[in-house]
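Work Package 3 (structural annotation) set out to generate three-dimensional models for the target panel prioritized at the project kickoff. During this period the team completed the workflow that converts sequence records into discrete structure tokens, so that structures can be stored uniformly alongside our sequence database. As a representative example, we reproduce one entry of 360 residues exactly as it appears in the project archive.
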Amino acid sequence: MDFTSGSVHRWPLPSICMCTALLCSATLLCSISATAQTSIGSVYYGTIGDSTRIVIVLGNGSPEGVSSYYYYCNYARQIALSGRVEAGQHFAFEEQSGDNGQVTGQLLGTIDDGGRKLSGEWMDAKGHRHLNLSAEHIADLITVDTSWKHANIHGAFSATYPHFLGGMGKGYLLLNDTLDALIAEERKGLYDWFVEESRNTGAEGDSSEYGIELATTMDLDVAMITKDFVTFAGHEEFDGGAHPSYSMPHYNYAVTGNRVQPVDRAKIFRKGSGFRAKLGKVLRAELTRTEYPCMESLEQSTLEDDENVLSFAIAGRGLLFRLWPGPHACGPAEDIFIPYSKIRDLIDPSGPLAPLVGDR
């Protein structure tokens, strides 16, 4: 059974494949199918204007591909792109921001050097302001899919994430192994559940009419990147069990030389600064300003919990907090951007963020 696709990517699945093979050979009632597809999209890193850093993802347009979008690294927020790539050489996109999909600008240009470079311009929605755009291909966006079956119990795992090429340095090639391990850990969690359900139901499978369906989908986007840091915006959905669920975590890594380490969010702040309480107050003020619907019942201690106060993406000009402060009836997660200028006194000048924050 081939678990590779070309020479671009290999997934770290020996333990999962071995366990699956043992289960299947013992019961003769389950099967595994696995596929890997590379380059469902391309990830580009570059600038708009003189120095505003951006990450652009261009989908390949196939049914299995992804939509196109981009991020300003300073803010780590996704901006949707609607448009097309013609003949693999010319692109024309409208950027859409806000809940109503308002068109706020356009990206126009060409794809050069065999797909390795983008060049063109950004202009505002009215066409009055024009800025140069340039970016280089730094990663392929790949997807991996695994499925298992035991009688009428089905498990399926799908992940989409970047596979870095050599342009960002050796540290980012090592980051590929870190991402592979992260995906493998998530996949193993679903697989362990599948095995447990299979053992519980026995050879006859589940007695319900439709059986049991367990499925996890996981996506990782490059939301901010420098030579020292990278932030991934995640989107994870689980369908199965008593209730479907979803989450939108951020993953922050420090990439220094030949080392890749997850950023310990708590170590970003000064010891003894009381940062949880102070950040909680800043977040509460922002929720009030944006008219969060459940402010009256929101307790301050909730905002100071690690699930909120340490749930953020590292961006170029601040921290993007993804909050779940109230029950689901209050709506989806709230994204609150706090510039470094508002919390500089809380940040440890010798901590992991020092190279990025500077005098901002």
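Residues 4-33+143-221+240-248 form one domain.
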